[in-house]
Write a structure and sequence with these properties.
The complex is a heterodimer of chains A (328) and B (318). Helices cover 73% and strands 0% of the residues of chain A. The chains are: A mainly alpha (328), B mainly alpha (318). Chains A and B meet through helix 1, helix 3, helix 7, helix 8 and helix 9 of A and helix 2, helix 5, helix 6, helix 7 and helix 10 of B.
Chain lengths: 328, 318
């Protein structure tokens, strides 16, 4: 309210600076000063957000330096002695290393290969549906699992795959034996990927449906006049039309390649399936939070983050070169 | 089979002329396309069934007779045995579930206002074209989407802040989601600039423009934020399991994990007599799922379009 009263007097001199850069000849310090003054209110409003990101994102980034130290709680982040790459070396030499790498990559590649195209296909199929109520109901229904908690999803998965569960009832009808699926390593990856698709296919298709509705209808008309069949139209009009959306999402997905799904794996796995289910982040969880090897597990986690970031850069670079679509 | 006759896209027909096209009955598509459409409808119908069936199974199981349910095998389409609400009785009388609900409601009531407020402030500033530090701040925020310190430093930080065994530990570290901030910023950018300019003429400062113009005009995106953050807080379990060791502070999801995944009988059947316990466990697990998922299941159909619109807004991101 105070501002309202005092503003008009300053207003005349304030207008020209808004949106117009001061002439470049002005000294940097002066420009900075006028800029800060002009943006004073905005800077105040920014304080909570910047504070949040600083405390809960940048301090942990600094905290990750304990990967190169022997962290002791008494000495804190900064006081613990440096040990260089000792923890990394220990991890690379440990018996777990190969298993963790294989599991992490295998599970994520499976999830990517089957999980990534699924919503695209769903969107393309839904796009062909011209019965409005049918399309709407399929959409509403398939979005739903996105909002069910992971705990409940894995609870459901348990109910359906235990020896007395529905999946085993069906197996018996088809002449197979009952098996405790969640206890068997050979079923873990299948269950992980199918439940993932079940939960996310609908929700992830939204963005593609939005992209599809943005494809210029005249292109279809033109293709039709040229005698293109429906399939040809999909191939030559629809897919190129949503290509950039697909690529952006693929890059983003690659950038999360090695982190996704660990909360779900923790709920799903048990010692009898560790051989296929244990990935880098679940190992970090057990070794760090359950066994309290802080520095060692931070090193493993940092290795994971760096791998992730490298994947993102690589994907972005490849895409820039071959498709001219990129994140930055 | 009117569904097999595919009308032209309406927009395509009306073209740029803006005239309303006559009711067009469509031309016959090729035989191959009609076969495709048949299987397309069939497949999509099957997908809808596969998505809904587990929830239906659980719902029907939860009101079925416990003993009959244990003997039953195969699909559950209608309740078996006499309809019984015994499982619900025990779930609703289970002090663990009531406690979990209370803790989760506390988390929601503190978390949602805080998250939406802080996110909207940041989104407002970053949606101002004239803000000089826009790009560096945007980078400061989006960088955290791609690189994180990791699980252990986060744990140590929260512990050092003295937030262990405090429900705020599952709220404060997640105050702002960078992606939500981008959604909100994109939506704020759509507020007509002329409104801001005329307010400025009347002497309004940024606080006033934020509170009196931008926020009241952004009810839809605020609703989306409330829903996204709310769902996130409601469903979160991992960090709660790390930060909260004191059982009386467990949010609902941790209680659910005991019942559904660890299958802790004591936690599940508190308040049920011994002999009834065994025959009821399956129905109780089902009833627990329903009771804990009910809030979202009931509001979901009405709010679905808001949920989806968030994705669209985020997608237009410049």
């Amino acid at each position: 309210m105070r501002g309202m009263v005092r503003r008009p007097s300053r207003f005349a001199e304030e207008i020209p600076t808004v949106g117009i850069k001061p002439p470049p000849s002005t000294k940097l310090s002066t420009r900075l000063k006028t800029g800060l003054l002009r943006d004073k209110e905005l800077l105040i409003m920014l304080v909570p957000v910047v504070t949040y990101f600083f405390i809960f994102h940048y301090i942990p980034m600094y905290g990750a330096t304990i990967a190169f130290r022997n962290y002791s709680p008494a000495r804190g982040f900064a006081g613990s002695p440096w040990v260089g790459f000792t923890h990394f070396a220990r991890f690379f030499r440990s018996v777990y290393f190969e298993r963790l790498m294989v599991n992490t990559i295998y599970l994520n590649v499976l999830a990517l290969v089957f999980g990534f195209p699924a919503p695209i296909i769903l969107a393309l199929l839904l796009n062909e549906v011209k019965t409005k109520w049918f399309k709407n109901s399929v959409q509403t229904i398939t979005y739903l699992p996105h909002f069910i908690s992971l705990v409940v999803i894995i609870g459901l998965l348990r109910e359906f795959t235990i020896t007395s569960g529905l999946v085993n009832d069906i197996r018996v009808m088809l002449g197979f034996r009952r098996i405790p699926m969640l206890q068997l390593p050979e079923y873990f990856r299948t269950l992980y990927v199918t439940s993932e698709i079940w939960q996310t296919i609908g929700w992830n298709s939204i963005i593609y449906l939005a992209a599809l509705s943005g494809v210029d209808p005249e292109l279809y008309e033109a293709a039709k006049i040229d005698g293109a069949s429906r399939w040809k139209q999909t191939l030559h009009v629809t897919l190129p039309g949503i290509q950039s959306t697909i690529i952006i999402l693929l890059i983003l997905r690659m950038g999360r390649m090695f982190t996704i799904g660990f909360e779900k794996i923790i709920l799903m796995y048990n010692p009898s399936t560790y051989s296929v289910a244990d990935v880098i982040s679940t190992f970090v969880y057990r070794s760090g939070l359950l066994e309290m090897n802080f520095s060692f597990s931070t090193a493993v986690g940092l290795f994971n983050s760096v791998l992730n970031f490298a994947m993102l850069l690589l994907a972005n670079r490849l895409s820039k070169r071959y498709s001219e679509t990129s994140l930055w | 089979m009117s569904t097999l006759l595919i009308p032209f896209r309406k927009r395509g027909l009306s073209g740029n002329t803006g005239t309303v096209p006559p009711k067009f009955k469509g031309i016959k598509e090729s035989r191959g396309y009609r076969t495709f459409q048949f299987f397309n409808y069939l497949g999509l119908g099957l997908l809808a069934f596969l998505t809904l069936y587990p929830m239906w199974h659980v719902l029907i199981g939860s009101i079925s007779d416990g003993r009959a349910l244990m003997r039953h095998s195969g699909f559950l389409l209608l309740p078996i045995g006499e309809i019984s609400f015994r499982a619900y009785e025990s779930v609703l009388n289970n002090p663990n579930i009531a406690m979990g609900y209370r803790n989760t409601l506390y988390i929601l009531s503190v978390g949602i206002p805080l998250q939406v407020f802080v996110t909207s402030l940041g989104a407002y500033v970053l949606s101002r074209k004239t803000f000089g530090l826009k790009n560096p701040v945007m980078f400061f925020i989006t960088f955290t989407m791609f690189f994180q310190g990791g699980m252990i430093p986060m744990f140590l930080l929260v512990r050092d802040l003295g937030l262990m065994n405090n429900l705020l530990s599952v709220v404060l570290p997640f105050t702002v989601n960078a992606f939500n901030l981008i959604i909100m910023r994109t939506s704020f950018q759509a507020v007509p600039e002329s409104l801001e300019e005329s307010a400025r003429m009347d002497g309004a400062n940024h606080f006033t423009i934020y509170a009196r113009i931008v926020m009241p005009l952004s009810k839809a995106v605020i609703a989306v934020m409330v829903l996204y953050y709310g769902v996130g807080l409601w469903n979160g379990w991992f960090w709660a399991s790390v930060f909260i060791r004191n059982r009386s502070l467990f949010p609902l999801q941790l209680i659910l994990r005991e019942i559904l995944i660890i299958q802790d009988l004591a936690s599940m059947t508190q308040g049920v007599s011994g002999d009834e316990m065994i025959s009821l466990t399956e129905a109780i697990r089902y009833a627990t799922i329903i009771v804990s998922t009910l809030p979202i299941l009931t509001v979901y159909p009405f709010l679905q379009k808001y949920f989806a619109s968030g994705v669209m807004i985020g997608a237009i991101k410049g």
